[in-house]
Amino acid sequence: LNELAGYYGLPAVSVKGCCFQAMQQGVPGFQVHEIRKQNLLDSKGLVFYYDEIHPDGNTGHRVMAELVVTLLQRGVADLLHSPLSEADKSAAAQQLPPPMISGNWESLSDRCFVGEAFKSKAVMGQPASWDWVNESRSVRPKWGYVSTTPGASLTLLLNSTASSGAAGHPVLVQVAYLSSYEHMGKAAVT
């Protein structure tokens, strides 16, 4: 993310820059040798991560929030001490540079459809061939459509309109599906 922030001239925060030494030393709240999900009670307040990706709310999320709040506080303090000049205001009014990655224009409708939001986007291809099911084995729900009917199809209605800068360019649509259980079928996106 530092490269992206640098390209657009934006401030950035770094968990690595903030926490690496504490993580290496195993300081309580910064421990990374295990995740909290594996040991909910004994690791509370000790580990940085809840699972392999997500920070724990009592430690990792708190540190990340403090990093962002500190960045904002410093920005406000800087502006109080040195208000924007006319040159600063003029520079801020300039158009953004083109995408850092050529052709990577923003979407007019970025969305991540999960749970009820995803459920509302589906149009059944074959009546009664799909069920809306929570397949979670923990307290965190994992809602999704499940079909045991061979050849069942599910149609999703999604807005894939590109931004004006990307007119005529392909639009990225990502679909995730569970493939870890035995006897799983295959999925095709057309």
**N-C termini distance:** 32 Å
Helix coverage percent of residues? 25-40%
By secondary-structure content and strand pairing, the structural class works out as alpha+beta
The residue-averaged pLDDT reads 82
Helix and strand pattern: HHHHHEEEE
Strand element count: 4
Which regions contain 5 or more consecutive residues with pLDDT less than 50?
none
> What does the main sheet amount to?
2 strands, antiparallel
- Percent in strands: 5-15%
H/I helix tally: 5
The general outline is flat
Strands across the major sheet, in which order?
A: 1-4
Whole-angstrom Rg = 23 Å
Structure overview:
With 190 residues, the protein is of the alpha+beta class. It contains five helices and four strands; from the N terminus they run H-H-H-H-H-E-E-E-E. The protein has helices spanning 2-8, 15-25, 60-81, 86-93, 116-119; strands at 122-124, 131-134, 143-146, 154-156. The strands form two sheets. It has a two-stranded antiparallel sheet with strand order 1-4. Strands 2-3 form a two-stranded antiparallel ribbon. Strand 2 and strand 3 (143-146) form a beta hairpin. It starts with a helix and ends in a 34-residue tail after the last strand.
